Amino acid sequence: MLILAIDTSAVASAALISDVAMEGVVDSFSTEDTRSHAEVLAPGIEKLLAGAGVTGADIDVIVTGVGPGPFTGLRSGIATARTLAFVWNKPLYGLMSLDAIALEVAESTAAVSEFLVATDARRKEVYWARYVLEEGQLPQLIDGPHVGFASDLPDLPVFGAGAGLYADVLRADEDFAETQPDAASLGQVALARLTAGQELLDSTPLYLRESDAQVPGPRKRAL
Amino acid sequence: MSGPYPEQPKQPLVLGIESSCDETGVGIVRGTTLLTNTVSSSMDEHVRFGGVIPEIASRAHLDAFVPTLQEALHEAGVTLEDVDAIAVTSGPGLAGALMVGVCAAKALAVATGKPLYAINHLVAHVGVGLLDSKPDAGAAAGQLPQNLGALLVSGGHTEILRIRSITDDVELLGSTIDDAAGEAYDKVARILGLGYPGGPAIDKLARQGNPKSIRFPRGLTQPKYMGTAEEKGPHRYDWSFSGLKTAVARCVEQFEARGEEAPVADIAAAFQEAVVDVISSKAVLACKEHGITDVLLGGGVAANSRLRELTGQRCVSAGIKLHVPPLDLCTDNGAMVAALGAQLIMAGIGPSGIAFAPDSSMPVTTVSVAA
Ligand SMILES: [Zn+2]
Hints:
The complex is a heterodimer.
Chain A: E1 2-7, E2 13-18, E3 25-30, H1 37-52, E4 61-65, H2 71-88, E5 92-95, H3 98-106, E6 114-120, E7 126-132, E8 140-148, E9 157-159, H4 161-165, E10 171-172, H5 183-195
Parallel strand pairs in A: 1-4, 4-5, 6-9, 9-10
Antiparallel strand pairs in A: 1-2, 2-3, 6-7, 7-8
Helix pairs in contact in A: 1-2, 3-5
Chain B: E1 13-18, E2 23-30, E3 33-41, H1 43-46, H2 54-76, E4 85-91, H3 95-112, E5 116-120, H4 121-127, E6 148-153, E7 158-165, E8 169-175, H5 181-191, H6 198-206, H7 223-226, H8 242-257, H9 264-289, E9 294-298, H10 305-317, E10 321-323, H11 327-330, H12 334-346
Parallel strand pairs in B: 1-4, 4-5, 6-9, 9-10
Antiparallel strand pairs in B: 1-2, 2-3, 6-7, 7-8
Helix pairs in contact in B: 2-3, 4-12, 5-6, 5-8, 5-9, 6-9, 8-9, 9-10
Bound molecules: zinc ion.
């Protein structure tokens, strides 16, 4: 099975995941910054395909991170994934983006049986979710994703760039202080779940916040 | 995918994508022939806010894009395989909204291997004048008049352009320095309790009012802004509508302070007259002083009956021919993007590649982004 995975919930990233490749990853790329998705994503995917010598026809499944993440960046990846899936006529699934970091935690020496993952939600808030981990299993999401202040999170070790930003008020893991959701990890989660016959999400974005629009109140009358 | 476009089909099949404001548009043209113009609007979702909310528009674009694309292909009876090139609005417009169309267009280019043109939205409005089988949309099929101007009036923009060549020589003569005219209509409609969108509501009510009963200011018309034909002032062809909106609010308050019911129809008529008067007079002045003999009206406010009437009259007196495309081509749509894309291809201009960034303030001098 060949999976094209895309995530733009924080940085822009894409990966080709295959059950025949070592550790599942054929190739991947990700940006450093969180604001250039529209420029870099399509060229990155084009290079990724060319580098691996595959075309759309070779891809079996497309998966996309559905957030949570800053809206404009998040939509870049989902718009890209939906369009590719339409043109190539391939199945498209969504994954909660924080699952990518959770998998990296599970595969690291820092793994603990219960932990949080957090990313930057801007406006002094974080996106976060709570996971439990059992030996030999994928991390299991038990609460979230939510958006809120770092100081209001449950008292557990926190992994991810959202923890690094607020290390003063939560139990941030230093090694993961800059870790962002990455398509390579997300694609591995997808491969594992699909192989195990588990259901994935659809590509509906997890905005978690309403648009900021305010319904205007009635105009104040003079007098 | 970059570099000069090798073959130039005589009548290229171009798919155009528009997402700069609240309309998700996909249009398909073959050369100068319109095959389909499919639009999905999120206007209804903005009604309760009294204006376009960028985040709501962006969310709607994401969900509307693939269905709109699918419908457009179906209506035109073509497949993506048949398409020679893709064109997309890359600016100016709402940043988050542009992003959705641009990302989708790039993905389309990657998935199909077709060349992609990143196109200026304002110049694309002029592109509809090139589509044939639409009487009065422009001059002869596929050709724009020689000394062409374009007056674009919508909720997002108010501009007067000079078009020497639609593919590479467009100049901004004047524009609004604050609100777009359509935005002023929306804000005033809210003050008058007329709902959203404001344009049609005010236009309708204004017919029952006396435009001369109240005099509202015409922005940027004082001599220090206008100057003379020889020594032009800093805003000779520019507009400003924020003062007008404030004047309307003040006027309503004064009636209320006196315990009187505000004469809503008269205010609507007087407001509309102020907007239309200053738009048409400055546009015609810009045309006269730049030797423009044909002017194309574009943007959603082109639907306004009084704007068409007064601009038409003033153009006639100035010896200028006014072209008004069908309304569904005046409002934002993908067909205009496709039409301009086809012109670029026929002029031998190369595609933009897939590494460009959308530009919410793209200048009209950039007709398409160079690779
Ligand atoms: Zn427009």
